[in-house]
Amino acid sequence: MSVALAGSTMHFLMALALAFTVLSVVGTPDVDSERWSVGAVGEETAASAAGLEVGDRVVAVDGQRFESFQALSAYLREHPGDQVTLLVDRDGQELQLQTTLGTRTDGGEEIGFLGVAAEFPSRRAGPVTGLVDSVKLTGQTMWLSIEGLGAFFSPAGVSGYVDTLTGSAPAAAPGEIEGENRLLSPVGAVRIASDAASTSLVAVLQFMFAINVFVGVFNLLPLLPFDGGHVAIATYERIRSRKGRRYFADVGKLMPLTYAVVAVLILVGLTALYLDLVDPISLR
């Protein structure tokens, strides 16, 4: 039992260490901070037309100040196509820029769109708080991984995956992630890791954290040849053992199911590789 659990345990411990590193050493973006700045400007957007630059800080819109980037975004969403005046802090100097907000559809509703990505200052948690939050985050991600696997291998999940393979799946709605109903092959994982590396160190560590948690959970599926299958057999043998006599399960009877599991793994692995080559997922 201890040998079978060792692999997943190490993945969870590495995930815990990565989470603690992000929360207490590197720091996470403080999305509620007033000190956010423009991290990227979209091409052919209202922001580029106004002349916004990376490093600028939008102080106010139409004379109204906002405490956070989220509050600013909420205001802009309510004014699609409107002409607005931006008060911008650029290297300590305040500038007034005018632009007409873009328009896009979200859930059938038109919303305003400026076209900037925000960059936030980092916030570090104390060691004790960081450790507690790391344990909570690891546990929550483990549960999300279990739910994700259950949804993927459900009838609806399998049907959606087939639609993705055949190209008949509907396009992702605004706010949804393209390719949610699929697993990554090593090729896709390397591509996303590369995208994360070009973004920030935090993105790389978060991706490594997610990979470790998922692999640890996946390896505990109660089916052979996973370690979770050996755990299930050992547990069953312990329950059946009586009065000092150890019960031994006939593993040979499970071989047809094991072959089926391996066949499914190979099929999913090959199709995931195919999707990552012809329709790659990107963070950019």
Question: How would the blueprint of this fold be written?
Answer:
Blueprint: H1 2-26, E1 28-29, E2 37-41, H2 46-50, E3 57-61, E4 64-65, H3 69-77, E5 83-90, E6 93-100, E7 102-106, E8 109-113, E9 116-119, E10 122-123, H4 127-152, H5 155-166, H6 186-199, H7 201-218, H8 227-240, H9 255-278
Helix pairs in contact: 1-4, 1-7, 1-8, 4-7, 6-7
Polypeptide structure, described:
The protein is of the alpha+beta class and 284 residues long. The protein folds into two domains: 2-27 and 125-278, no CATH class; 37-122, PDZ domain (Pdz3 Domain). The chain is 52% helix and 16% strand. The protein is built from nine helices and ten strands. The chain has helices at 2-26, 46-50, 69-77, 127-152, 155-166, 186-199, 201-218, 227-240, 255-278; strands spanning 28-29, 37-41, 57-61, 64-65, 83-90, 93-100, 102-106, 109-113, 116-119, 122-123. A four-stranded antiparallel beta sheet has the order 4-3-5-6. α1 (2-26) crosses α8 and α6 (186-199) packs antiparallel against α7 (201-218). The radius of gyration is 25 Å and the shape is elongated.
